[in-house]
Specification:
Layout (H helix, E strand, L loop, with lengths): L1 E6 L3 H13 L2 E7 L3 H10 L6 E3 L2 H6 L4 E4 L6 H10 L3 E5 L6 H14 L3 E4 L6 H12 L6 E7 L5 H5 L15 H17 L4 E8 L5 E9 L4 E7 L8 E5 L2 E5 L8 E4 L5 E3 L10 H13 L2 H25 L10
Helix pairs in contact: 1-9, 4-5, 5-10, 8-10
Protein name: Gfo/Idh/MocA family oxidoreductase
GO molecular function: nucleotide binding
Pfam families: GFO_IDH_MocA (PF01408)
Length: 331
């Protein structure tokens, strides 16, 4: 198995560790945390022992592991991934991988020059259920007339924000907000299924901290539009849809997809059989490991192409809305 170091000890990291254990793709060997106590508690919680802990990032990257998984706050992805690549590590970085296109371009070029892999962990596009969506879209390509993707989920940190605290996900300092947290999933939906849009327009609801609590995004293609509704300050149970004239493919969610239906002009609803893993990160773990072990450059470059477009769309959306991150000021 591929040796793995991790940065970030949140719930999503725990889910990824479970995925690599289930798929036997990577083996956790190293952990970086600002405090040894926090790292040890994380390892105890996931029943891992004999794992090297570092509280100094330079020492961490000098350790003999192959790949690093980064799940720190958004604004830290770039400097941490850059340091990893400089130390010849493959990088799996949670989406969004960077705060700006400039940052992504630097990592992209550096990874190629060092001969290591840079993966943006957009887990859902690797799942079998998403592959089924791609099959349906490909089969009915000439009939596509648009799509609506919705992903709104009340953040567990929003109450803390309302109470006067300053959670990372609701600050410009850490490149937070609805677009860069949940919207990235729906932008991936559009980019993987339909390609790069011709124009991008984002209309956000800005909260007092200066980030978008929710918003609506329009991606304009030559023959149709994709409308995206996202939010971290409210819940929505609205389905997502892809339109084929009189017929519609219905997704139960734009980000965490669990069920598909086909609806015809007579409102006949047909269930589309799909496979869904209990851990949605299993599929991406397998894909990343396969690319590394088999040196599958074709699959890798295809994923990288998606990541480049997604990061460009996210920045275009922010620019259209006048949303500014602290990272925009760094040159």
């Amino acid at each position: 198995m591929i040796s793995l170091g991790i940065i970030g000890t949140s719930g999503i990291t725990e889910q990824f560790i479970k995925a690599i254990d289930e798929t036997e793709t990577f083996s956790l060997t190293n952990v970086y945390s600002r405090t040894e106590t926090k790292a040890q508690k994380f390892l105890d919680d996931i029943n891992k022992s004999d794992i090297q802990i570092d509280t100094d990032m330079d020492k961490f990257f000098q350790r003999n592991f192959d790949t690093v998984y980064i799940a720190s706050p958004n604004a830290l992805h770039f400097p941490e991934a850059k340091k990893a690549i400089e130390n010849n590590k493959n990088v799996i970085v949670e989406k969004p991988s960077t705060s700006t296109v400039r940052e992504f371009s630097i990592l992209d070029e550096l990874a190629h020059s060092k001969g290591v892999y840079l993966f943006e962990a957009a887990r859902h596009i690797h799942e079998p259920i998403f592959k089924k969506i791609q099959e349906v879209v490909s089969k009915h390509q000439k009939d596509i007339t648009g799509a609506t993707f919705s992903y709104m989920k009340y953040s567990s940190r929003y109450d803390a924000y309302l109470a006067g605290q300053n959670p990372n996900i609701f600050t410009t300092k850490f490149s937070g907000g609805a677009l860069y947290d949940l919207g990235v999933y729906t932008v991936y939906d559009a980019v993987v299924l339909f390609g790069q849009p011709e124009r991008v327009q984002y209309t956000p609801e800005i909260i007092e901290s200066g980030i978008d609590g929710s918003g609506s995004l329009t991606l304009k293609y030559s023959d149709f539009d994709v409308n995206i509704i996202i939010g971290k300050t409210k819940n929505s149970y609205m389905s997502s849809e892809i339109y084929f004239g009189k017929d519609t493919l219905i997704l139960d969610n734009g980000g965490d997809i669990n069920h598909l239906d086909w609806a015809d002009d007579n409102r006949n609803i047909t269930d589309i059989p799909t496979v869904k893993s209990s851990n949605p990160m299993d599929a991406e773990a397998k894909v990343f490991a396969k690319i590394i072990t088999e040196n599958d450059k074709e699959t890798y470059e295809n994923l990288l192409k998606y990541a480049r477009i997604v990061n460009k769309v996210l920045e275009q959306a922010r620019t259209s809305a006048g949303l500014v991150f602290d990272a925009d000021e760094e040159k």
